[in-house]
Write a structure and sequence with these properties.
The chain has helices at 36-39, 100-106, 110-137, 169-182, 196-203, 208-212, and strands at residues 54-57, 84-87, 90-99, 162-164, 190-194, 224-228, 231-235, 242-243, 247-255, 259-273, 278-291, 297-304. The protein is of the alpha+beta class. The protein has a domain at 142-261 and 291-304: hypothetical protein PF0899 fold (2-Layer Sandwich), CATH 3.30.2320. Strands 4, 5, 6, 7, 8, 9 and 12 form a seven-stranded mixed β-sheet that branches. Strands 3-11-10 form a three-stranded antiparallel β-sheet. A two-stranded antiparallel sheet has the order 1-2. The protein is flat and about 105 Å long. The protein starts with 35 loop residues before the first helix and ends with a strand.
């Protein structure tokens, strides 16, 4: 270990009397919080086997209920409903080598620690992709300048984003909740994913007491900060901004039944690498995501005016 500064004319004896050592601990890595397993259902995960497969999801049909008059001939309906396909067509992988010398010198289980870190990075990559996918899939009825099956709420459009302030946060949360109400979305298991700046605004406003009521502390590590207007609030740094008149954000609220997710690890293996005298760790994960109920989600397109 070199000690600086060194007096003029004195030799640098770094490593001569105090040799270098390999630490038995890794420098801690900070990973982004992932939320996709909190906002999606995995009802169909057991039905996939490998990449490229499709899960055909049958939807419950709506029935026509008519007035009845004694003696009338009953009208017979033909029931039909489109099938929603959940395609397992996405994939992520990692592959790295652990040199045998590194393992020996570090005196620790590098393979296990690095594989665990790679798995977390893989989850973050999936989370980023899913959150970027959602906004375009929301029903046109539940977004834009006239959102709502009954009401006409301005939820922002390209070129005209809604400006979110400390004074109107609750209003837009209630708009999102009302839009879901008008689509007959059940009140339980509703969620919203917001960027950190909006989470900060809520927690530093008069809304913080309301948002923390009923908070499930076990979900804190997964980004839950509370609830407002019946929406569980998840803060995620995996939401990406878009360039418009300002830096803008697509904030989606929805119901857990709306988003389906299924994944499968198709390759997970340790290989000997003769060239570097080490172990190769590899994993391939295939998955599919589908907003199977596009009217069970709502979109707020906004910019940050909280500061």
């Amino acid at each position: 270990m070199a000690i600086y500064p060194i007096a003029a004319g004195q030799p640098d004896l770094s490593g001569t009397f105090i040799p270098s050592v390999w630490s038995g601990r890794l420098l801690e890595e900070f990973y982004k919080t992932t939320v996709y397993m909190e906002i999606a259902n995995t009802n169909y995960e057991g039905e996939i086997k490998e990449g490229g497969e499709t899960v055909h999801i049958r939807q419950v049909v709506s029935h026509n209920v008519r007035d009845y008059t004694k003696g009338q001939k009953l009208q017979i309906d033909t029931l039909s409903k489109d099938v929603v396909d959940l395609n397992i067509d996405k994939g992520k992988y990692f592959s790295f080598v652990v040199d045998s010398i590194d393992q020996y010198q570090s005196d620790m289980d590098l393979m296990g620690d690095w594989a665990e870190g790679a798995a977390k990075d893989l989850k973050v990559a999936i989370d980023l992709e899913i959150l970027a996918y959602l906004p375009s899939e929301v029903s046109s009825t539940n977004k834009g300048a006239t959102a709502g099956a009954v009401s006409n709420y301005n939820m922002g459009t390209t070129g005209a984003p809604v400006a979110i302030t400390l004074n109107n946060v609750l209003k837009y949360f209630t708009y999102l909740s009302t839009i879901l109400d008008e689509s007959n979305v059940p009140p339980d298991d509703r969620w919203i994913v917001i960027p950190p700046w909006l989470g900060n605004a809520i927690q530093n406003s008069d809304l913080k007491n309301a948002s923390f009521s009923g908070l499930d502390s076990s979900l804190l590590l997964r980004g839950l900060i509370g609830s407002l207007a019946g929406l569980k609030i998840f803060v995620s740094n995996n939401l990406t901004s878009v360039s418009d008149t300002d830096t803008c954000w697509n904030i989606v609220a929805g119901h857990k039944s709306a988003l389906s997710f299924a994944s499968q690890v198709v390759i997970s293996r340790n290989l000997e690498d003769a060239e570097v005298l080490g172990k190769i760790i590899q994993m391939v994960n295939v998955y599919g995501r589908k907003l199977v109920k596009t009217d069970a989600a709502a979109l707020l397109y906004c910019k940050n005016n909280t500061v």
